[in-house]
Amino acid sequence: MKRIPSGIPGMDELIEGGFLEGSATLVSGGAGCGKSIFCTQFLYNGAKDYGEPGIFITLEEGPTNIWWNMQRFHWDITKLQTEKKLKIYRFGMYDPAVFANKIDDELKKIQEMVEEMGAKRLVIDSTTAFGLWLEKEQMIRHTIFKISESLKKLGCTTLLTAETNGKKDVYSAFGVEEFAVDGIVMLYFVPPNRSIFVRKMRGTNHDKRVHPFDITDKGVTVHSKDEIMWESLH
User: Fold this and answer.
1) How far apart are CA 102 and CA 41, in angstroms?
2) Domain limits for position 62
3) What is the pTM of this model?
4) Half-sphere exposure in the Cβ direction for 94 (13 Å, CA)
5) I want to staple 33 with a disulfide (CB 3.0 to 4.6 A). Which of 29, 63, 109, 223 is the partner?
6) Domain for residue 108, yes or no?
7) Domain CATH number, residue 228
């Protein structure tokens, strides 16, 4: 089984060298814990260091805001965009009454972008946003499963974010995302400390401990040799 390097220092030591090629992993945590930065770094370093084009699909922030966020780490995304190795795409904004009927159209657009770029990496930020457009929980669950299965068919290695209430034993927003993916990476922020825990990773003998990580002007760095006690997380 081929492993896809995460592009995040220290992360691959926790997951046998990287994410399984073509897998879908949920990156969950409370507000401000670093989910979007983690995923953006996965895309940026994937394109820069490994020549793997990637697409950042946002359901919340506009492309300009995401571009600003990348700039704070001095990442030269303009070059990668020009070379068609990195693309930011905002999921269509629809009235909640018609959103469910537009999912197939959006998935088709994503497929066309993947084929045009030869994309190998995808990020969906965030699955929690589906709750803004879909009122019934059953429809939310159906949509998340549908999107997850459709993305797997594209052959890309995908990260999806989900915002939780920040509690250590809550892994998703709707209680279904964790069943639609191959892996779960939990990020925690208990000021002033940040930590990471690999909750699940199919086909991988992943690390079972909680580790600290930092966000610096270069992005996320996981301290795989250090450990944080589970009891210290709220």
Assistant:
1) 29
2) 3-166+178-232
3) 0.92
4) 16
5) 29
6) yes
7) 3.40.50.300
Closest Cα to residue 68, out of 36, 91, 27, 45? 36
- Residue 199, beta-bridge partner list: none
Helix, strand or coil, per DSSP, at residue 61: coil
Written as six digits, the tokens of 23 are: 């897998």
CA 80 – CA 88 distance, rounded (Å): 11
Q: Rounded CA gap, 146 and 176, in Å?
A: 12
Contact 234, 21 (CB under 8 A): no
The three-state DSSP-derived secondary structure of 133-150 is HCCCHHHHHHHHHHHHHH
| ∠ CA 175-181-187, rounded to 5° | 70
Strands (DSSP E) found in the chain? 3-4, 19-20, 24-29, 54-58, 86-90, 121-125, 157-163, 183-190, 193-201, 210-216, 219-222
Q: How far is residue 222's CA from residue 156's CA, in Å, rounded to a whole number?
A: 24
The residue behind tokens 């159906």 is: 142
Domain assignment present for residue 46? The answer is yes
Domain count within the chain: 1
Centroid of chain to Cα 157 = 10
Please report whether residue 91 resides in a domain.
yes
pLDDT digits (tens, 9 = 90+) for 14-46: 999 999 999 999 999 998 899 989 999 999 999
Other Cβ atoms less than 10 A from the Cβ of 82: the count is: 9
Residue 173 within any structural domain of the chain: no
| One-letter amino acid of 153 | K
pLDDT tens profile 53-83: 999 998 876 666 677 777 778 888 888 989 9
Report the Cα–Cα distance between both ends of the chain, in Å, rounded.
Answer: 36
